[in-house]
Write a structure and sequence with these properties.
The chain has 123 residues and is an all-alpha fold. It is built from five helices and no strands.
Amino acid sequence: MRILLVIGLGSFIGGVARYLVTLLIQNKALSSFPYGTMGVNIIGCFLIGIIYGLSERGNLNGEWRLFLATGIMGGFTTFSSFSNDTVSMLRDAEYLQAFSYIGFSVIIGLAATFGGISLIKYL
């Protein structure tokens, strides 16, 4: 039961952070392109890379990893929002934007995760 509470608290924190960071990024973008969602996903990829890098080093026990990765990052990242944004662009025949969004999100997200792991590995 303790683990479920730890993950639930992390999800709450991550969800609130996602909302605030998405608003901040999207309001600065002044565009209908979902920069907020993309930004949150890329930041989340980088942070989860750091979390798993620390975990691999032995700096995080299992409970902390669950709190940070499953809880906070699970609440913070937004794959369902990413999917919905993409479907909306496709329905509106915004094909270049949709495929740019997919490409940038996946490529930069993978690079951010690798960067987070590498940062911790080489520190």
